[in-house]
Amino acid sequence: MENKEFFIGECIKLAAKGAGNVSPNPLVGCVIVKNNRIIGKGWHRKFGGPHAEVNAISDAKKKGHSLKNSELYVNLEPCPHHGKTPPCTDLIIHEKISKVFIGIKDPNKSVNGKGIAKLKRAGIKVEYGILANACRELNKFFIKSVTKRLPYVTLKIAQSIDGKIALDNNKSKYITGNESLEFVHTLRSEYDAVLIGKNTAKLDNPSLTVRLVKGRNPFRIVIDRNSKLPANLKLFTDNNADKTIVINSTDGKFIPYKNIIKALHELGINSILVEGGAGVFSGFIKENLFDDIYFISAPVIIGSGISPFRDFKITTLSEAKNIFLNNIFRTGNDLVLHYKK
Predict the structure, then answer these.
(1) Full-prediction pTM beyond 0.85?
(2) How far is it, in rounded angstroms, from Cα 192 to Cα 216?
């Protein structure tokens, strides 16, 4: 691995520390390097706060380092415009940094290539496209939001090893183990919202909060087209009731999932973790609105039971949805299979 890849890798690690706190902004980490040694580092910690480049430069200066002729590494192109904070490019130029290495261009039209051009006009050497795939994966929520104007959608399916999410009588709490629950709480802390259907809300009465790990609580979206959910559910009565959003219809008719996620994106929700049940999972599959799926399989055989895609019915194999295995790992005794579309 070349040094520039190592340093961008360090930026990615730093950027990930902002997960769950910076949306709708991207995750960004930055390191300042001089004589092949990191002299300053920082990341974007929260929405509205200083950007990663500002924090890294500040860190280096606090330690007494001169930034003249140093190198700056960052996983996403520095911004050239005024937003909630001043342009990072102006600060880089002011500090006489000689080289800037960038993971990927910012796909946002207000930035895309403009930050690089501004740095080059100031005589700074710029290189980009370093660990590009890893940088895109890190900011998959942000990239989809600014390029498609839709939230990133992940299906999280906790199931038996034979592919059942509940018994025939709808009993399902809890199929998977404690380690898997902790993993799910980590996911929740990283997404803007968790979404479920009315049956899951009514039968499981879930909190959908982050309790087993440190992190923010997501918005809780429940689809209740006829507005018939009991008012005493945890979603409506706990300390996070103000973060519950109910999707209903004035005439009680079906609302396409595409319309639902478009409306949620307009509310500032850039990522959605879908947690069930079968009708909701099937709907996202039918409309091809998912980006990836986590199957969390417990070592238990249920036999007759409810399939996660029970309502997705096809008549020919050509209609089947193809997904691609991205990763496999264990959480305790459970097996997690991560697929991408």
Answers:
(1) yes
(2) 9
Residue with the two structure tokens 């005589």: 123
Rounded distance between C-alpha atoms, residue 168 and residue 278, angstroms: 12
* Catalytic machinery residues: 53
Q: Are 146 and 111 in contact (CB under 8 A)?
A: no
Question: What is the number of other CB atoms lying within 10 angstroms of the CB of residue 68?
Answer: 10
Q: How many other CB atoms sit within 10 Å of the CB of residue 202?
A: 16
C-alpha–C-alpha distance, residues 154 and 50, integer Å: 29
Average pLDDT over residues 205-223: 96
Please say if the pLDDT value at position 84 is more than 70. Answer: no
Task: Give tens-digit pLDDT for 246-293.
Answer: 999 888 788 999 999 999 999 999 999 999 899 999 999 999 999 999
Written as one string, the DSSP assignment of 131-192 is THHHHHHHTHHHHHHHHHSS-EEEEEEEEETTS-SB-TT---TTSS-HHHHHHHHHHHHHSS
| Residue ranges in 38-87 assigned as alpha helix (H) | 52-62
145 contact partners, CB below 8 Å, separation of at least 6: 24, 151, 152, 265, 270
Q: How far apart are CA 80 and CA 89, in angstroms?
A: 5
Confidence of residue 1 (pLDDT cuts 50, 70, 90): low
- E strands, 188-249, are 193-197, 219-223, 244-247
